[in-house]
Design goal:
Strands 6, 7, 9, 10, 12 and 13 form a 6-stranded antiparallel β-sheet that branches. Strands 18, 19, 21, 22, 24 and 25 form a 6-stranded antiparallel β-sheet that branches. This protein has a 4-stranded antiparallel β-sheet with strand order 3-14-8-11. It is of the alpha+beta class. Helix 1 runs antiparallel to helix 3 and helix 3 packs across helix 5. It has 3 domains: 166 residues, no CATH class; 154 residues, Galactose-binding lectin (Jelly Rolls, Sandwich); 157 residues, Jelly Rolls (Sandwich), CATH 2.60.120.430. It is 19% helix and 30% strand.
Length: 516
């Protein structure tokens, strides 16, 4: 990869701090498109990817245009660049903008960001001089950035004294810096247990289930793109999906030898602003995912798989293990457009097993039942409403009943759950308790007041289902169990709740592999 210069960590931080100030300024706050464009070109330049900042590449990567788009018809890249230059000029004409030590520019006729220090930039302790970006070869696999600074210094840079004089002679205000390519070689001890990586993040994150996600690491290639304002459905943790890595990239994750269940998380946010009313966005981004050379997803399209944009989408793979070198090698390879991923989970499990899914509908946090089983916060849903009751209908009916707290919340309305599982056969248990219709509750009527259907992957599981009628009264827990269910082609058990009279509802869902 050419064009890698020496930009120390403190200078990268200066640039990102200035970028954040720009994005929050009055000049940029009202233009989502210019904000994303500026962030994209700055991150590309800082990460050493400025060579890919061409109109066609930007159109595909940032704006989701097809690979063969006609630039004379699709002028969005040029128009957005022009608008961004005007906003940068407006920002730096203000008193606040002029006072900052580092300045971010976009020269006319270019899509490469330039960084200029008005004052001498602060540097980390190092005898190495700052230099203009030069073309160098990437270090051989397994060698760290030190190879560029020491062992390869003579071959790449010539004599240090001459370059020092050359660098000193150039005005500081006009120097342009780019960052070296990060070393993807895994370092430190192999990871064990459950591993969760939130792609594109620089700080840990604790989700609604109390699970901690690590910062982004073990990657090489690609760039990250932040879409902090996007609304993402089928999840209570949209922040997991707002910083995807895109491009042609890989993750090399050191793991303790063993068996893992892998969850790959996706959400297509990059196309939402640029698809027409006649198109869903399908076919704009198609890619391949492989693990240790074995293809897991081929010609994968996030939009088609999730049935839309801005939808959290999870694919699950069983029996994943590190390669012989103790590393899990995940490759994300573009076929059309660019590849992407939002998060990676690796869960240690026994060979041949799949972790069960237990969802407490309507409840915003995880919960452990009397048997010690963990129920997730309400997850994987689309549509409907959450209801948490002040009183528990099951507890009123049967005081002290095991796990009656499960029925203190529900999801109601017209809604669906897309529960991700690997290929196999599953037992699905739906948990119900009528807590609304009846003389002791705020609803009205009795039997016949709530009637609905439940479908699994388009096949009816329940028809004209009436909880009060089937349970023999209000406040009585009722389970309906279905066996031998298989996921659809998208790796989901898709449960759809369709009201016929009143509103459909459910209190809990359990999915367990039915092992023969």
């Amino acid at each position: 990869m050419g064009g890698a210069g020496l930009l120390v960590e403190s200078q990268q931080q200066d640039i990102r701090d200035e970028l954040n100030r720009l994005l929050e300024s009055a000049a940029f706050r009202g233009s989502k498109r210019c904000r994303e464009f500026l962030q994209y070109i700055v991150e590309q330049t800082v990460s050493g990817e400025s060579g890919s900042l061409k109109e066609r590449a930007i159109g595909m990567e940032l704006f989701g245009l097809p690979q063969d788009f006609d630039s004379s018809q699709h002028t969005i890249v040029r128009v957005t660049a022009s608008e961004t230059r005007k906003k940068l000029a407006l920002y730096y004409q203000s008193e606040n903008g002029a006072a900052h030590a580092v300045r971010i520019d976009l020269p006319p006729g270019s899509y490469n960001a330039e960084f200029r220090w008005i004052e001498e930039p602060r540097t980390e302790p190092s005898p190495a001089p700052l230099i203009e970006a030069v073309d160098v070869e990437a270090p051989p696999p397994g060698l760290s950035r030190r190879w560029l600074l020491a062992g390869g210094a003579t071959a790449l840079l010539g004599t240090a004294g001459g370059l020092w004089l050359w660098a000193r002679s150039e005005p500081e205000a006009t120097k342009r810096f780019t960052a070296p390519v990060p070393d993807p070689t895994p370092t430190g001890p192999a990871l064990s247990g459950h591993v969760r990586i939130r792609v594109g993040s620089s700080h840990p994150y604790v989700d609604r289930n109390g699970q901690t996600w690590e910062v982004d690491k073990y990657f090489s290639g690609g760039i990250t793109r932040s879409r902090a304002s996007e609304r993402i459905v089928r999840t209570l943790d949209p922040d997991i999906y707002r910083h995807p890595r895109i491009g042609d990239f890989r993750y090399d994750i050191p793991l303790v030898a063993g068996n893992y269940e892998m969850h790959l998380h996706f959400a297509e946010t990059g196309l939402s602003d640029f698809i027409s009313a006649e198109s869903s966005g399908e076919g704009q981004r198609v890619f391949r995912v492989s693990a240790n050379g074995r293809i897991l997803l081929d010609y994968f399209d996030v939009v088609a798989d999730a049935a839309g944009t801005n939808i959290s989408n999870e694919r699950v793979f069983r029996d994943i293990s590190p390669a012989g070198d103790g590393v899990l090698h995940l490759a994300f390879s573009p076929i059309r457009g660019s590849a992407m991923v939002s998060a990676i989970e690796l869960l240690a499990v026994d060979p041949g097993t799949v972790q069960p899914i237990r969802v407490r509908s309507g409840w915003p946090t995880s919960w452990r039942d009397a048997a010690g089983r963990q129920w997730r916060a309400d997850s994987y849903f689309l549509g409907g409403n959450a209801l948490v009751r002040r009183t528990n209908p099951a507890r009123e009916s049967e005081p002290g009943a095991p796990n009656d707290a499960l029925y203190a919340s529900e999801r109601w309305g017209h809604f669906s759950y897309a529960l991700p599982v690997p290929e196999g056969r599953y037992r699905v248990t739906l948990k119900f308790c009528e807590g609304h219709y009846g003389p002791r509750n705020t609803g009205f009527g009795g039997i016949g007041s709530r009637v609905f259907d439940v479908h699994c992957n388009g096949v009816a599981l329940l028809k004209d289902f009436d909880i009060m009628k089937e349970a023999g009264g209000e406040g009585r827990p009722l389970d309906r169990v279905f066996t031998g269910l298989r996921p659809n082609a998208q790796g989901k058990i898709l449960l759809t709740f369709v009201p016929n009279k009143g509103m459909a509802c459910v209190n809990g869902i359990e999915v367990v592999e039915a092992r023969s």
